[in-house]
Amino acid sequence: MLHIEPTAIPDVKILTPSRFEDGRGFFSEVYNRKRYEEAGVTLDFVQDNHSLSEKAGTIRGLHFQTAPFAQDKLVRVVRGRILDVAVDLRRSSPTFGQHVAVELSAQNWRQLLVPIGFAHGFCTLEPDTEVLYKVTNYYSAAHDRGLAFDDPALGIEWPVDVSQAVLSEKDRKHPRLADLPACFD
């Protein structure tokens, strides 16, 4: 069974697959194409990505890819906890510039579906956090873009003092929303 919860931005969804526990541990079908299609999620995932962040307070993002390599993402945590964030970059959307922030953890078993047209990022809430995510298009360095995670116009309340956040140099240099060229209509 797959439980689907709406978010403040209708195209971003929280998906929670069933988890069956017993004395040995648990079993879960974290992705089953047929069940997802029956639930209305008809995406063709082509690549799985896996990241490990050693320190709590690590921010990765906000990332996206432009056409023709734009990606939908299905994000989940297998160890630790994150605050997962999706920012609407679709200029014609009534929620342009708004974001959804959801806690994902190995404990709550939630997944976040981030559609094309959104920048995506997360902040780790525990050390040694591992994140897995499926994408619907292959990585393309030429189409890889980012949005400033600390842009005040976004109003994201990161769970870490941004001056203390662990970031890549690349993620420190992304443009603010007002300076970002139109990538999605």
TrEMBL record:
<feature type="site" description="Participates in a stacking interaction with the thymidine ring of dTDP-4-oxo-6-deoxyglucose">
    <location>
        <position position="139"/>
    </location>
</feature>
<keyword id="KW-0413">Isomerase</keyword>
<protein>
    <recommendedName>
        <fullName>dTDP-4-dehydrorhamnose 3,5-epimerase</fullName>
        <ecNumber>5.1.3.13</ecNumber>
    </recommendedName>
</protein>
<dbReference type="GO" id="GO:0019305">
    <property type="term" value="P:dTDP-rhamnose biosynthetic process"/>
</dbReference>
<dbReference type="InterPro" id="IPR014710">
    <property type="entry name" value="RmlC-like_jellyroll"/>
</dbReference>
<dbReference type="InterPro" id="IPR011051">
    <property type="entry name" value="RmlC_Cupin_sf"/>
</dbReference>
<dbReference type="GO" id="GO:0008830">
    <property type="term" value="F:dTDP-4-dehydrorhamnose 3,5-epimerase activity"/>
</dbReference>
<dbReference type="GO" id="GO:0000271">
    <property type="term" value="P:polysaccharide biosynthetic process"/>
</dbReference>
<comment type="subunit">
    <text>Homodimer.</text>
</comment>
<feature type="active site" description="Proton acceptor">
    <location>
        <position position="63"/>
    </location>
</feature>
<dbReference type="InterPro" id="IPR000888">
    <property type="entry name" value="RmlC-like"/>
</dbReference>
<feature type="active site" description="Proton donor">
    <location>
        <position position="133"/>
    </location>
</feature>
<dbReference type="Pfam" id="PF00908">
    <property type="entry name" value="dTDP_sugar_isom"/>
</dbReference>
<comment type="similarity">
    <text>Belongs to the dTDP-4-dehydrorhamnose 3,5-epimerase family.</text>
</comment>
<comment type="function">
    <text>Catalyzes the epimerization of the C3' and C5'positions of dTDP-6-deoxy-D-xylo-4-hexulose, forming dTDP-6-deoxy-L-lyxo-4-hexulose.</text>
</comment>
<dbReference type="GO" id="GO:0005829">
    <property type="term" value="C:cytosol"/>
</dbReference>
<comment type="pathway">
    <text>Carbohydrate biosynthesis; dTDP-L-rhamnose biosynthesis.</text>
</comment>
